[in-house]
Inverse folding.
């Protein structure tokens, strides 16, 4: 079975790990210049470095669908710079997974493949995809939604749950302080304290709000806009977590596999 995943960031890469380990052929697409934060666990880095290994699985950049076939034959994951997923017609996947996490549907249709799965908000099960996989932490993380009625029920549940995670998420995420070019000051894995400067844009500092480990940060020279997610601090402080797929990514991957 062949699965095409739109997006190759950390959540999409967790999905790819679960599917690849289950014996499925996985192909991924992303931007030519990826903007993933957790670069140490993102297969999108293959487009930057030529190849990227996450845990025990290797992905390689593919310039075409034909080259993707060669990489699949070698037992690895091909990644194409193809955000519009134009390779779909040539690759003819059995399943299409939208894991861009844009919080809206950027053009995926239920007829694009025999199985079409939307990851996170912005999709409606039974209308633009066959199933939706929940990405919000909590009781329903990784749950598969097959009907609009269940989706609406879960949205109501999140209305009262969201305040429980909003403050923590706001403190963990580092956002660009201005429009411009991002300059990285710290490396992934650095231990940080509140007030430490992790990056800078247009002379303005991007400061950490909590202590812990810098789990992710944009690469040097990335073009950003004010408020764009540019870094992530893990308050648990375990450096080794920077180099393995997260519990969330693997849970969502389990939902996609289902």
């Amino acid at each position: 079975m062949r699965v095409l995943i739109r997006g190759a960031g950390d959540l999409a890469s967790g999905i790819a790990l679960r599917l690849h380990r289950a014996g499925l052929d996985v192909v991924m697409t992303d931007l030519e210049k990826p903007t993933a934060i957790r670069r140490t666990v993102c297969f999108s880095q293959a487009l930057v470095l030529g190849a990227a290994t996450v845990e025990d699985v290797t992905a390689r950049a593919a310039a075409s669908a034909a080259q993707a076939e060669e990489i699949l034959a070698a037992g690895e994951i091909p990644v194409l710079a193809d955000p519009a997923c134009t390779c779909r017609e040539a690759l003819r996947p059995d399943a299409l997974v939208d894991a861009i996490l844009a919080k809206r549907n950027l053009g995926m249709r239920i007829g694009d493949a025999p199985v079409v799965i939307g990851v996170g908000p912005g999709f409606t099960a039974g209308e633009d995809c066959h199933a939706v996989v929940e990405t919000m932490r909590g009781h329903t993380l990784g749950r598969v939604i097959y009907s609009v009625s269940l989706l609406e029920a879960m949205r109501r549940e999140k209305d009262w749950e969201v305040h429980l995670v909003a403050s923590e998420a706001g403190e963990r995420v580092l956002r660009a302080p201005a429009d411009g070019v991002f300059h990285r000051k710290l490396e992934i894995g650095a231990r940080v304290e509140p007030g430490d400067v992790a990056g800078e844009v247009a002379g303005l500092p991007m400061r950490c709000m909590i202590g812990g480990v810098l789990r992710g940060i944009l690469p040097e020279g990335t073009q950003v806009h004010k408020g764009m997610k540019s870094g992530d601090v893990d308050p648990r402080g375990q450096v080794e977590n920077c180099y393995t797929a997260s519990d969330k990514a693997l849970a969502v991957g389990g939902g996609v596999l289902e």
Residues 51 and 60 are 4 Å apart (CA to CA). The first strand starts at residue 2 and ends at 6. The chain has a mean pLDDT of 91.
